[in-house]
Design goal:
By secondary structure, the protein is of the alpha/beta class. It has 2 domains: about 250 residues, Ribonuclease Z/Hydroxyacylglutathione hydrolase-like (Metallo-beta-lactamase, Chain A), CATH 3.60.15; about 140 residues, 3-Layer(aba) Sandwich (Rossmann fold), CATH 3.40.50. The protein has 14 helices and 21 strands. The strands form 5 sheets. A 7-stranded mixed β-sheet has the order 1-2-7-8-9-10-11. The radius of gyration is 26 Å and the shape is elongated. The C terminus is likely disordered.
């Protein structure tokens, strides 16, 4: 079909063939501008669902958001009778994929549900039914449709615990769920016809998949060996032109670049700060200078006044230690620090080393507030942060040096454990 014919067919609620045996029966939502609150959608999105026909029955792969059920059923009825539907495959149970499921189960009562093992409780909560029949599947399990079969790949946390993929080997089609998808609505449907959606593809990865990079890598290990003629994601363009390029791009996005550039055994420590009158800056410089004196530590210093926090995401993702410096203004850390901390929610920070420091005039709450947030993000915060009132004295700069060295030694596993009296905790600037 030509691009113009596809646009016409979509407008008329027609099913769109991916092949003679496979059809798109999804829906378009061009007016959507915000998805799940956190994602902007400049071009709207699509809710992709598919029908696979075999000689012994039909499988439906995912459904659509409930508000678009009419479009879904109109297209589905063009390519299948309800009593032919043998299987309903749910690669992911969020409402945008399962909104039409309850009605589909009523219309196709003979269909069996296929879900991942981790989707069981979600499915019961979604449908509010006690006696619910379904089959759980794992990597290697198959649905036999006669001359077609769907093989499952267990790909959890992309981006929910329940996510999985299904592979139609006879046609080399991967029904990938959210993986390789994006929020980009274009009625021409296929990537060789649509507008340029690269920004949406990368944005989607950064905000949806990036926090689960380790799981992305595991999924790629399953997917890369497959012959791929087409990738059919749950959102965005259907990838029929050079689908393997999108798999390669995911591998690039999920592969740490810094680790290829530093020496084996080296660890990276990043010091971010913002300073009103130069006092916190002096502390940052002392901490940075001392940390890099520790063998094996590669330390970097960044003034947040001169950079957009979003540009630091790659650095933060690959760093081993994050040290944040802020003055206390109106009983709080300053906004650029909170913006940087907010950006960490899309990055896996668990187990990294975290620390805080800063100058203050009256109350000095910023350091403790930053430390609490770092702990909430699952970073380790073993050293109590340094706080200095107003202008740091030479002795306080030496304390900052000691703090930087202690952080470096902690990062490299060389810091000696010490027994500290409770009275010390009440008076010390940091726990050494």
């Amino acid at each position: 079909m030509s691009a113009a014919r596809i646009v016409q067919a979509v407008a008329q609620r027609e099913a769109i063939p991916l092949s003679p045996r496979v059809h798109w029966v999804g829906a378009l939502d061009p007016g959507l501008r915000s998805f799940d609150i956190i994602l902007k959608t400049a071009n709207g999105t699509s809710y992709n669902a598919y029908v696979v026909r075999g000689s012994h029955g039909v499988a439906v792969v995912d459904t659509v958001k409930r508000e678009f059920s009419a479009d879904f059923f109109a297209r589905l009825e063009q390519v299948a009778e309800y009593d032919e539907i043998k299987a309903i495959v749910l690669n992911h149970l969020e409402p945008d994929h399962t909104g039409a499921l309850p009605e589909l189960m009523e219309r196709a009562p003979n269909a069996q549900l296929y879900i991942s093992n981790k989707a069981q409780m979600m499915l019961k909560a979604l449908l509010k039914r006690e006696n619910l029949a379904f089959t759980t599947v794992d990597t290697g399990d198959r649905i036999d449709l006669g001359d077609r079969s769907l093989r499952f790949l267990h790909t959890p946390y992309l981006h929910w615990p329940d996510t999985q993929c299904a592979y139609l080997a006879e046609e080399q089609i991967l029904f990938s769920g959210d993986v390789f998808g994006c929020h980009f609505c274009d009625a021409r449907l296929f990537n060789d016809f649509t507008g340029d959606f690269r920004f949406s593809f990368e944005y989607y990865y950064a905000h949806i998949m990036r926090p689960f990079r380790d799981f992305v890598v595991r999924a790629l290990d399953l997917i890369e060996p497959l012959p791929l003629g087409l990738i059919a994601p749950a959102h965005g363009p259907i990838l029929r032109d050079r689908p393997s390029d999108y798999v390669k791009r995911y591998r690039e996005l999920a592969s740490p670049r810094l680790k290829r550039e530093i020496h084996p055994g080296e660890k990276t420590l990043l010091v971010f700060y913002i300073s009103s009158y130069g006092n916190t800056a002096r502390m940052a410089e002392a901490i940075h200078s001392a940390a890099q004196e520790i063998s094996g530590v590669r330390a970097s210093l960044y003034d947040l006044e001169g950079g957009d926090t979003e540009t630091f995401a790659d650095l933060l993702e690959e760093a081993d230690a994050i040290v944040l410096g802020s003055p206390t203004i109106n009983g709080d850390a300053v906004k650029p620090i909170w913006d940087l901390l907010s950006s960490l929610t899309v990055i896996d920070m668990k187990g990294k080393l975290g620390a805080a420091f800063g100058s203050y005039g009256w109350s000095g709450e910023a350091v403790r507030m930053i430390e609490d947030r770092l702990r909430g993000l699952k970073l380790r915060v073993p050293l109590q942060g340094v706080r200095v009132k107003l202008i740091p004295t030479p002795e306080e700069i030496l304390q900052c040096h000691a703090f930087g060295r202690a952080l470096g030694e902690e990062l490299m596993g060389r810091r000696e454990a010490r027994v500290i009296d409770m009275s010390d905790l009440l008076t010390s600037q940091y726990s050494a």
